Amino acid sequence: xxxxxxxxxxxxxxxxxxxxxxxxxxxxxxxxxxxxxxxxxxxxxxxxxxxxxxxxxxxxxxxxxxxxxxxxxxxxxxxxxxxxxxxxxxxxxxxxxxxxxxxxxxxxxxxxxxxxxxxxxxxxxxxxxxxxxxxxxxxxxxxxxxxxxxxxxxxxxxxxxxxxxxxxxxxxxxxxxxxxxxxxxxxxxxxxxxxxxxxxxxxxxxxxxxxxxxxxxxxxxxxxxxxxxxxxxxxxxxxxxxxxx
Length: 245
Description:
This protein has helices at residues 2-47, 67-73, 77-83, 85-91, 98-108, 163-182, 187-197, 202-209, 213-227, 232-241; strands spanning 51-56, 61-65, 114-120, 129-140, 146-155. By secondary structure, the protein is an alpha+beta fold. A 5-stranded antiparallel β-sheet has the order 2-1-5-4-3.
């Protein structure tokens, strides 16, 4: 009986040790699989034909970037982080740098995404290159406010294989944007715009629509504000792009 109990106890311990050894092996294999998966994903991020990075929306400091961005701008990830918003001031065209603040504010206002075109240049170079970028919120604090933004940029200067399609795509984007602005006009403002495109002056438009000249001038001022143009030439140009003849 005593011998049987010892055998039973030994068998239970051996079975327990065997199960523990199996569990450790399984965990080690799973850990190795996860490490390989992470390495593969990191390799994808660094080799993808786009510049990808994340930044803190509070201070515009880069928190991570892939190798392609570092190669394109000539700064290391640590240098970008240390420079804060000055990094963007250094690489962006002066006329486009204001977009950094616009994007920052848009996410403070809970915008779902921010996209557009901007010019950047590599450290030590003179010429700028055009980039198409899209940014989206990445992380949030406990109050739901955006903390980090993730951004992807494509270098349009490298789209040499589809120049015709690139031109057509940009024209279509601008046309849709102009149509969106046009839809903000009132029916009367559209009437005034149509006659302005035909070359009628304020007096002629007023007579045709049975309005005062002052009213026509007010309409044209509102049209310029809504379509974001500065003068009649720009007004006529944008109107023709959306179909006015």
